[in-house]
Amino acid sequence: MAKIASAPPPQKAKSIAKPKRMDSDTKTLTTILIGLGVMVVVIVGGVAAFTYFEQSQKSRLAVTVQSDSISADRTHDNAATASSAEQQRRMFQFNVYEGKRSNFNPDTAYEPGEVLIAEPPAGFEDKIREAGFGVLEHIRLGRLNMSLVRVSTPSGMSVEDAIKKLSIVLPGVTIDANQQYEASAGGSAIAGSNAREMAGWDTLSPTCGRGLVLGQIDSGIDMTHPALVGQHIEHQAFTKPGREPGPPDHGTAVAAMLVGKADWGGLLPGAKLYAANMFEINENGKIVGSSIGLLKAIDWMATKHVDAVNLSIAGNDNKVVRQAFELANKEGFMMVAAVGNWGRADKPAYPAAYDFVVAVTATKGSELIYSHANQGQYVDFAAPGVAIYTAQPGGGGKAQSGTSFATPYITAMAAILNNAGKTPTPNDLRKALSTATRDLGTPGRDDIFGYGYVNARPACK
Q1: Would you list the domain boundaries of the chain?
Q2: CA–CA separation, 310 vs 290, rounded Å?
Q3: Considering only CA atoms, which of 97, 105, 96, 186 is closest in space to residue 403?
Q4: Fewer beta carbons under 10 A from the terminal one: N or C of the chain?
Q5: In 116-248, where does DSSP find H-type helix?
Q6: Could you tell me the pLDDT band of residue 12, with boundaries at 50, 70 and 90?
Q7: pLDDT above 70: residue 230
Q8: In the prediction, which pLDDT does 347 show?
Q9: CA separation (Å) from 68 to 2, 72, 417, 435?
Q10: Model pLDDT, residue 27
Q11: Which 8-state DSSP code applies to residue 311?
């Protein structure tokens, strides 16, 4: 059985009776006391305002619906008041620190001196060498049946000019930069609850998710962390020749949310996870994730027949990546991605903004939007993403915020539905989950919350 929470109608403010007229003696006495009165009003008013904002999230109504996976139907029958424990989980402090907004610039984030060519035609090498380009790497994505070439640009030529030049030399061929991506984490928070507690999943079985297969394309993970020791995880890194894998901080946090032990907040501890690391340390010591790493990871993941893959990353649109993702979608690959933390409504983040990827934003509690989340027509659903207590390399943990940490909730539910054969396409998933959401913001689907806050959980025993 799954539970869906719905909000009661807002309570109207109590009316205030008009004061009676005062006679002259009373008015004089009032004038004498007004100084002290103002002080009392200020103090009481301040306390009242603080209390209002701290307690503005009211109890939700819990409704039980029949489902063998997660809820896919909205109903208002058999409503019952949520338990005190559930109310406490849903209460959230408005003054929690949300971390810093990302300063990542997707328009300038790409590997310098490199260009990617998809499905290069026969004899292309001689043509591009004559134009000053050189072949750096041949890549075959066997599962996606796609060939790529990573080429070097002529000395002194910008990546933009190189793409234009190659488009003339190889007309009709898909060519783009080796785009860089960032992990969609907004930074540390002061305090928080683990993923299960934040969403009210903490009463679920510690083996919830058994039989499911999840995917994660992120940074590396610390397999020795107590949250992950003994869990069903297979990990592989996809880095450029000569570069070392990036640190396992972000990937450890996301992996522990997805399949970590229940006492660490793992949403589906019984599931198997295939984790791909696409992040590496470049020649300048900077942590970067490239299109090549992402595409190699996608192809590897496609061979594992995962029920859903979590992409807590964000970057610019890319023609080569788009083509590969289209092929993955045709293979029935269910992809769920973070909308990004740039705080922008004018610049979509990819891969979340692709039509065949389900896009997830983050909320502060279950009512407010995460202030650094991107906005746009591509936003599909909202889930908790502020002050989530996450595992960190070395055995400890910390509270973090970002759309990265909202995405695993939707990935978990996508895997359950897809495994049951109920949502073979992204649009099927959107249709199913949209009936289990609580509308926030502008009525109906909007650019901030998408269809709304997904208020459902697995029916694990």
Answers
A1: 110-180, 182-454
A2: 17
A3: 186
A4: C
A5: 124-130, 159-169, 195-199
A6: very low
A7: yes
A8: 96
A9: 8, 10, 9, 16
A10: 42
A11: E
Location of structure tokens 């407010």: 368
- For 346, the 3-state DSSP assignment is coil
Find, among 185, 187, 288, 302, the residue nearest to 240 by Cα. 288
Residue 91 structure tokens = 């209460």
Going by C-alpha positions, the residue among 235, 304, 258, 272 that lies closest to residue 412 is: 258
d(CA 255, CA 331): 24
Q: Where are the beta strands (DSSP E) in 278-405?
A: 279-281, 287-290, 308-311, 313-315, 335-338, 358-364, 368-369, 381-384, 388-391, 397-401
φ, ψ of residue 287 in degrees (nearest 5): -85, 120
Domain 182-454 sits in which CATH superfamily? Peptidase S8/S53 domain (3.40.50.200)
SS3 175: strand
Q: Are 183 and 279 in contact (CB under 8 A)?
A: yes
Q: Identify the CA nearest to 405 among candidates 360, 375, 436.
A: 360
Rg (CA), the chain: 26
Beta carbons of 405 and 385 less than 8 angstroms apart: yes
What is the CATH code for 110-180?
3.30.70
User: In 3D, which of 422, 363, 446, 424 has the Cα closest to residue 71?
Assistant: 422
| pLDDT, average across residues 127-131 | 96
Report, as residue numbers or ranges, the catalytic residues.
Answer: 218, 250, 404
337: β partners: 311, 359
